[in-house]
Design a protein that fits this description.
This protein is an alpha+beta fold. It has 4 helices and 4 strands.
Amino acid sequence: MLRCTKCDRAQLRQIFEEVYRVLKPGGLFILVDFHSPTNQVFWPGLAVFLWLFETETAWNLLETDLGSLLAEVGWRSYNSKEAQQPKICAGGSIQVIQLQKSVDS
C-alpha cells in the first residue's frame, strides 16, 4: 500500500519507477488518493482532514498531476488509450487511476 500524501514529487517518481520495474508485463497498478475537489461542498471536510491528520505533502499532492508523472515513468492507462485520467469520486476529493505495465516491457 502506498500513501502518496506522505511523499514529495521526487519520491513519488522513484516509487512509481520501482513499481513499474518489479511489476510483470501486463500487470495492473491501481492508485487511489486525494484529489482537489471539483464540488466545493467537499472542500471543508477535506481541508479539516488534511489539517488534522496529514502533512504539507498532502496539500502539495492536490496540485500534483499524477497522470503526467506516471506517464513520464512509462505507465499507460488501463481502460483507454487516452492519457492517465483519474476516475474522480466523492465530489472530486478522491482519485482512482488504473494503470497497466506495457506488455512490451
